[in-house]
Every structure is written in C-alpha cells, then in structure tokens.
Amino acid sequence: MGSRRGDLPPGPPTVPVLGNAHIFPTKQAHVQFTQWAKVYGDIYSLMVGDQVMVILSNPRLVQELLDHRTATTSDRPPVHILDVIAHGLVVPMMRYGELWKDFRRVLREILSREACARHLPIQRAEATQLMYDLLKQPENFFTDIRRYSSSTILSAVFGLRCPRYSDSYISRFFTVQRDLSFIVGPGAIPPVDIFPVLKYVPERWASWKTMAKNIKKVHRKLWYDLLDVIEKRVVEGRRQGCLMEDIWDNQEQFNFNREKMAYIGSNMLEAGSDTTSMFLQSFIAFITAHPEVQRRAQAEIDDVIGPSRSPSFEDWDSLPYLQAIVKEVHRLRPITPSLIPHRTTADERLDQYMIPKGSTVFVNVWGINYDPAAFDEPEKFDPDRFLRSEFGTRDGADDTGRRHDLVFGCGRRFCPGMEFATNSLRINTMNLLWAFNFGLAKDDAGKPIPIDLNDMTDGLLLTQNPYKCVVEPRSQRHADIIRTNYAAARGLFAQFEQELTPDEKKYVEEW
Ligand code: HEM
C-alpha cells in the first residue's frame, strides 16, 4: 500500500502505507500542484494510501481524457460526509449514475439558454440594486456583491428575493455554506474516505458525527422551508414563474420526490451563489489595482454607451476590451483552480501512462493558466494579450485543446449554470465600470493602501480576501440614472417579494 506502480504517471517519491498522503497539500493545493508539474511534467500522479490521484496540467491532455472519454471519466470520488449530511444529493459531488442523470436532466432543462433568457429581467434588476447599494453604502461593496449573487439565484430559483444582506433566508443560507465548507474542508474530520474503517468508530469517540448530525438538521430545515414556500404559493394560486415552480409542476415527469426537489433547489443556490460573487470581487480588485486598465475600459464604454443611459445586455458584443479584461480575470483567478475532481470508472491510457479505474483526476487550471511556455509574463495582468491572440497565448504556443470555458469544467460534469453565470458577469462588469470609479483606499495619513492581489482565500473556491477600496459614482448624471433605474425596478421586484417579512418590507420601502 502506498507504492506507485511502474506504468503510472511519475510523481513525488512515496513512503510505505501513506504513499504521498503526508505531503498532499491541504492549503492552496493548486500552487503545490503547479510546482510539482514543473518537476514531474504535464501529467503526474500522487499516491494517497492505495488511491491514485492524477494531475493534468496541459489542455491537450484534459481534452483527450475528460472531454473526449466522458463515458469513463465522469464519476466523482466519494465524499462520505456529504452522504451523511445530504444523503448524497449534492450534484457537484454526486457519484455518476442514474440519480446524477436525473438531476442533470432537470438542470439542463431549467438552465438552458432559453430558460436563462427568461430570468434576465430579474438579473438586470438585481444588478441595478447592486449599483444603488454601492451608491448608498460603498464601503460595503464586498457584501453588497454577495447579496446580489445570492438574491439573484434565490429569485430565479425560488421567486424569493433578499433585499438586504442580513435577510432571513440569505443569512440562513450563508450559515449553511460556512458550515459545509468547514466540514468538507481539510482536517475537519478524520480521513474517512481514505481509511473507510474510520466510519465505524462509535459516535462517543467521534465528535465529528455529532457535528455532522447538527449541520444536517439545519440544512434540511432550510431546504424544506424553501420548498414549503413553493408549495404554498402553487396551492394558493400565486405562482410567479420561478424555476422551482417548473420543477414542482413536472415532478412526475422528472421522477422527483419531495427530497429530490428540496435538494435540487439547494444545489443551484450552493453552486451558483458564491462562484459569481467571487469572480466580481476579484474583478474589482484587479481594476482597482490597475487604474490604467480601468480608464481604458471606461473610455470604451463611454464611446459605445455614453453617460445618458446605463448599459444594456446587447452592448456586450461591442466591448472587446472589457471582454478581454473578463478573460484575463478568469485566467488569473479561476474560481476553482483545480476544478472539482473527476474519477475514472475504467482503466484508461493517456500518452504512455496507465490511469487505473478508480483514479481521481484533478485539472490543474492554475498551472495551465500560469504556464510560461504558453503565456508571456503569466503573472502579469495584461488584458491586451486576449486582443493579440485568441487564447491570450504567445506566438508559437501549442493551443491544442485550449478553450475559453475551461474554468467551467469538462465533459459531462461541465457546469450547467454557465449561461446563467455568464449573463450575471456580463451585466455587472458593464454596469460597474460604466457607473463607478474604483480607487485605492487611504490610511489615516492619506497614503494609498495598495491591494495585495496575492492575498487569496483558501479552499475549493478562490477569490481575494476582503480588501478596501473607494467606490465613487463617475458623475452626478450616472448617480441620477442609477436612482431612476432602481425606482423603475421596484415594480418587477414586487413579484419576488411576496414572502418578505414585515420588517424586510419596511426596509424596502425606506431604502
Ligand atoms: C462564475 C460562476 C461559476 C463558475 C466559475 C462555475 C464553475 C463550475 C465548475 C468548475 C464546475 C465543475 C465542473 C467539472 O467538474 O468539470 C461546476 C459545476 C457545477 N455548477 Fe458551476 N460555476 C459557476 C456558476 C454556477 C451557477 C450560476 C450555477 C447554477 C445556477 C452552477 C451550477 C453548477 C452545478 C449544479 C454543478 C455540478 C455539475 C455536476 O457535477 O454534474 N454553477 N461549476
């Protein structure tokens, strides 16, 4: 146990029993994955006990294995704690099989391009509130963005918006997110997936089991409460067109019982909320730290849109420099820098190596995006690289298998929410640059406080840790248009505010 077979991809030396488990990175894994790629190559392996982990750091290899051989590379490694907490109903970590196919079929249908087009009005209206919030409380931009992304998903999925960061559903959701990230994070519970025998330690010696039970209770209560909102609305004839009402209406056709319905809603919320806000938080950090890029993007926006109206969705195609900025932020801050691992269900050969059935495969997006053989000065924030070449790569770079949407995953596990997410990113990046100047905050002595772009979160999802910046409207005219648009959006919001508490309603009236 722990040793590496001769036909596997190379990797760091192993020790008996543990293999490489003792050096498997528990923090910023993508950074270590990238360092090892420099030593062992674009395909290498790690042994964790007797489990094989393969790390791919080259787009051609990713395409060959995960995009082309999807029948045998679409499973996920087991995560016992999610079986306990969520009965295995968390789609991003769900094992490949009939249950996953049932969920995926529904997600494909309700997150299709046409379905997402139906939700554009509320996405736009929520984005208007984001601008309005930034006008009124610019110092809270970090949480304003998080409110935006969660409220947008809650609105589209449950027809239920949260006008405030502290509103009940949204804050219950954030608690659930925090608990879940903690318990699936490194070191929170013993390594039960590597040593399954640990699952059978009685609860009196395994406090993590009590913790998991408590988290499960809070989770299920939230998801079932949200489902009750939908049921009540449908029964009382107050439908408002959200995604969960579609699922409710088609539950037989979808083969969905109450539990599956409760969890599919939660899946969209969990997978779609922080991913979107984290991108926008990184985006603002980069444009604040690079004022010359910000000014040039604003000049482009002014040419196309001007100060007399706010951006419309259709403007996106006329803004090549902004498109290049968004690509560059995706390159430098991929939200999931090692994606979510896939697992093989048959032996596969890749180049000269064997990848045995049951291997866990990580895509080292970070290493691919920071590869000096592909990108000139890969650490540099340089949106122009995407104007010079399709993928931002240097002359003569090998682009086999390279694609813009790798940050959204591979093969059959490709993110089903990409369309929804992309719409949000387009609307908000246009709005933010049209409406505001983002500048460095100043300390008490009036000295600018630089943003440390290397101060990033640790965990499955990657963004900047909270930072300070000054957010100011670009002119009185811009501010007036934001206020007018927010007032106009109130009509649409009303359909999503049926279930607000009296306190929340009062807030909306006074805000
Ligand atoms: C910037 C925003 C987003 C990014 C970067 C992102 C990225 C990803 C990635 C990398 C995966 C894993 C793909 C793989 O395993 O190969 C994934 C899976 C998933 N995403 Fe997204 N996502 C975003 C937004 C969303 C949104 C808005 C939703 C839903 C409304 C969503 C729903 C899901 C679901 C349900 C899965 C699991 C798919 C499966 O395992 O079959 N995501 N996403």
UniProtKB/TrEMBL annotation:
Keywords on record: Heme, Iron, Membrane, Metal-binding, Monooxygenase, Oxidoreductase, Transmembrane, Transmembrane helix
A GO CC term attached to the entry: membrane
Protein localization: Membrane
Highest rank taxon of the organism: Eukaryota
UniProt-recorded Gene Ontology molecular function terms: heme binding; iron ion binding; monooxygenase activity; oxidoreductase activity, acting on paired donors, with incorporation or reduction of molecular oxygen
Binding site for heme: 415
Coiled-coil annotated residue ranges, if any: none
Pathway(s) it belongs to: Secondary metabolite biosynthesis
Cofactor(s) in the UniProt record: heme
Family to which this protein belongs: Belongs to the cytochrome P450 family.
Protein name: Cytochrome P450
Organism: Steccherinum ochraceum
Biological classification of the source: Eukaryota, Fungi, Dikarya, Basidiomycota, Agaricomycotina
